[in-house]
Amino acid sequence: MTTQPAGPSPLTHRNATAAAFFDLDKTILAKSSSLMFARPFYRNGLIGRADVLRSAYAQFVFLGSGADHDQIEQLRNYLSALCKGWPVDQVTAIVNETLDELVEPTIYEEALALIDEHHAAGRDVIIVSSSGTEIVEPIGVRLGVDLAVGSQLAVEDGRYTGEILFYAYGPAKAEAIRELAAEHGYDLSQCYAYSDSQTDVPMLECVGYPFAVNPDTELRRTAAARSWPVLDFARPTTMRPRPRGDQAAAAAAAIGAVALGVAWYAARRRDRA
Q1: C-beta neighbour count of 207 within 10 angstroms
Q2: pLDDT value of position 50
Q3: Region label for 147, one of left (φ > 0), alpha (ψ between -120 and 50) or beta (otherwise)
Q4: Domain spanning 19-272, CATH architecture
Q5: Which regions in the chain score pLDDT beneath 70?
Q6: By CB atoms within 10 Å of each CB, which of 25, 95, 213, 248 scores lowest?
Q7: What is the pLDDT of residue 15?
Q8: Angle at 212 between CA 172 and CA 192, to 5 degrees
Q9: DSSP bridge partners of 155
Q10: Catalytic residue among 25, 124, 146, 216
């Protein structure tokens, strides 16, 4: 039987009236969060040498010029087919064991400062990324964000089937943001959004304060045309656990809130079907 998404968990800030929505790759991280785990997957026998080389090339393209719609679609199809049959528990263990080694050097100091600023202003901070929940959620926990929404693959008998239950990409990100706003009472005109990619224009358009971060060529052009602020992040720093004072006594609740992610969104889609 295919695993169904779990029900929603509460957000950390129940009374927040606004939120800041962050893309992950090249916005909070300096690299692609999905591709950086190629080598540990290879060391643990999940992929072959050719897959490592292909992932390295994809990372090079991503860092050099950003990925356009067609490249993102190709990468999505490649990764979903690649992980078909992988044991979920093994993937989760690999990510958790290598998180510090791989992700720690890639966190932008400027992004951490923004996360702190939004929390200090009483806003929820939410990551919305096309990377899988198995990657997005642990990173979100370590960053102390309130929620992490990522793509989710179907699971059957403890293994990935290769079917995508929810792909957090393009217009789907904006749809998830609007549903979160309706669910939790956010005033989108007072919300913020940050992304590097032209494919995330729908996400940026649905908030009152959009920001282009390390934008690709097309998004830089769009930002200039629409007078959106452009932020250039360049200082990776050390990732570390970042519980805020009000979270310290409720770490488990914070982790549960981050784990909501796509499970919440996929459940709502299933209920409407």
Answers
A1: 25
A2: 59
A3: beta
A4: 3-Layer(aba) Sandwich (3.40)
A5: 1-15, 34-36, 48-80, 237-273
A6: 248
A7: 64
A8: 65
A9: 160
A10: 25
- Which tens digits make up the pLDDT trace of 30-71? 877 766 677 787 788 877 665 554 554 444 343 344 455 665
Question: What is the Cβ-side half-sphere exposure of residue 136, based on CA atoms within 13 angstroms?
Answer: 28
Is 246 one of the catalytic residues? no
Tokens (6 digits) for 63:
């860092």
pLDDT at 13: 47
- Residue in 23, 124, 196, 216 annotated catalytic: 23
The answer to whether residues 11 and 272 touch, using CB atoms and an 8 Å cutoff, is: no
pLDDT on residue 128: 95
CA dihedral 210, 215, 218, 220 (to 10 degrees): 70
Whether 196 is a known active-site residue: answer no
Summarize the chain as % helix, strand, coil (round to 5): 50, 20, 30
The structure tokens 């079907």 sit at: 273
Q: In what order do the strands lie in the sheet with 19-22?
A: 159-166, 147-156, 124-132, 19-22, 192-195, 209-213, 230-231
Q: Name the average pLDDT for the chain.
A: 76
